[in-house]
Design a protein that fits this description.
Elements lengths: L2 H19 L4 E4 L13 E7 L5 E7 L1 H14 L7 H27 L5 E7 L9 E6 L6 E7 L1 H4 L9 H8 L4 H6 L6 E4 L7 H5 L17 E5 L2 E11 L2 E9 L2 H11 L9
Antiparallel strand pairs: 1-5, 2-3, 2-4, 3-6, 5-6, 7-8, 8-9, 9-10
Helix pairs in contact: 1-3, 2-3
């Protein structure tokens, strides 16, 4: 069993569950998936990541697991009632955060960007998956379980370390006094949740409580912008009561240049 993915999954789910519920969880891989009980009313999620062709990661949890974590999340938000649909959607949000963290771990392992692509819920389990069992526990609470599987191609994504372009640039400029000075320059960093266009009459109608719909879905990554250029994309997290962004994907050099050009304001030429 490739330990890197299992380890990333243990850490990612534990941290995501803690962030959403305010509780501490211990997630551990089992030596034998046959040791865990059968999953009742499971939610099965299939994920595609850029490190492999086609779907490459699956995670399945029974109702006892996704319902418990869903209810704890609602309790943390001060809500006493949570329906099965609420718990269902909460578990999928937890899975999305977990997958993003696993992708970030594989990126760090390999030095190559591993991006989170298409994900979908399945009603039937694909054949011939090599499942790994995991336990989830909180304090003295009872054990709960889930399963995960991944393709050999995804497992190999974290094996061959390739030096990132950023590390090569830093190494080449390590002895440059000019580069050392630039390292202390402060740059404004902003996060874009989306944008939209409104007619003047619509803007004039805005008041307290109005909702402006953006061009970005809730599950879509937000953009990290430096000097009017998109340099990365990530997910919104909460750190010690403050909002933050966990970087999931770095923009390519070409993409950074294109975003800078499209965001630049063109000034008209002065005519003599």
């Amino acid at each position: 069993m490739p330990l890197n993915i299992a380890h990333h999954l243990e850490t990612a789910l534990g941290q995501a569950a803690a962030a959403m519920t305010g509780k501490t969880f211990i997630v551990s891989a089992l030596d034998n998936v046959a040791d865990m009980p059968a999953l009742e009313e499971p939610i099965l999620w299939q994920q595609t990541l850029s490190a492999a062709d086609g779907p490459s990661f699956w995670i399945a949890a029974g109702k006892d697991t996704w319902e418990a974590l869903g209810r704890l999340t609602f309790e943390a938000a001060g809500l006493d009632e949570a329906t099965d649909a609420d718990c269902h959607s909460t578990w999928l949000e937890l899975v999305n955060q977990t997958v993003a963290s696993v992708a970030a771990g594989l990126t760090a392992d390999s030095g190559k960007d591993v991006a989170v692509l298409k994900g979908e819920e399945l009603t039937a389990e694909p054949a011939d998956l090599a499942w790994t069992g995991f336990s989830v526990t909180r304090d003295s609470d009872k054990l709960r379980f889930f399963r995960a599987a991944w393709t050999p191609a995804l497992a190999g994504a974290g094996e061959a370390r390739v030096e990132p372009e950023q590390a090569m640039v830093a190494r080449d400029n390590a002895g440059s006094p000019t580069f050392d000075i630039l390292l202390d320059v402060a740059l404004p960093v902003s996060v874009s949740f989306g944008k939209t266009s409104l007619q003047v009459r619509e803007v004039l109608k805005l008041n307290t409580g109005s909702i402006v719909e953006l061009d970005r879905l809730v599950a879509d990554p937000v953009e990290v912008i430096v000097n009017n250029r998109v340099i990365a994309r990530g997910e919104v997290v909460v750190v010690d009561g403050n909002y933050g962004v966990r970087i999931n994907q770095l923009a390519s050099r070409d993409e950074r240049l294109r975003s800078g050009m499209s965001g630049a304001v063109r000034k008209p030429l002065l005519q003599p």
